[in-house]
Design goal:
The chain is mainly alpha-helical. The chain has 8 helices and no strands. Helix 1 runs antiparallel to helix 2 and helix 1 packs across helix 6. The longest helix has 23 residues. The chain is elongated. The relative contact order is 0.13.
């Protein structure tokens, strides 16, 4: 069976998927909820495989796939999104009990930006590029989201 020139080698695609899966999953789960977010990641990776030649010309592949996956997922709104953040590291940290409810008060955009910048440590520039919006939008949504979280959690001292 000959090699398909429109598809990457399995090893190349595995490396690519490994590099983009985590930020995609975190951002999409933060915006869409756990179930729809994970499904959207899988959709994005299938899209990447099927459109590899198109994707090769894109400079910000994770951001491009994020926008594709989010757009496709939002076409199929079936269930309300429950605001929650999933991370494999939760068991290592003590999580504020009211965080889940406080996150539910954020817009989906604020939730994603707070998580990308504060949770994953992306710079404003990286998050802006990933989400396809301006750095000033990142700053605005981050400030509003953090303000909402502080109010909801009763935080008065900001370090």
């Amino acid at each position: 069976m000959g090699k398909n020139p429109d598809r990457p080698s399995p090893d190349l695609f595995r490396r690519f998927a490994r590099d983009v899966e985590r930020p995609l999953r975190y951002a999409l789960v933060a915006e869409l909820g756990p179930d729809r977010g994970r499904e959207a990641v899988q959709d994005a990776l299938v899209y990447a495989w099927e459109h590899w030649q198109q994707l090769a010309a894109v400079t910000n592949r994770p951001g491009y796939l994020y926008r594709i996956a989010k757009r496709r997922a939002l076409r199929h709104r079936f269930l309300p999104v429950r605001a929650t953040i999933e991370t494999p590291y939760v068991e290592r940290f003590t999580i504020e009990p009211g965080l889940d409810a406080a996150l539910g008060r954020l817009t989906s955009r604020q939730r994603a930006i707070v998580y990308l910048v504060e949770g994953l440590g992306m710079t404003h520039r990286e998050a802006a590029e990933f989400l396809g919006i301006s750095r000033s939008s990142i700053q605005t949504h981050l400030e509003r989201g953090l303000g909402t979280l502080r109010t909801a959690l009763g935080v008065t001292d900001v370090v």
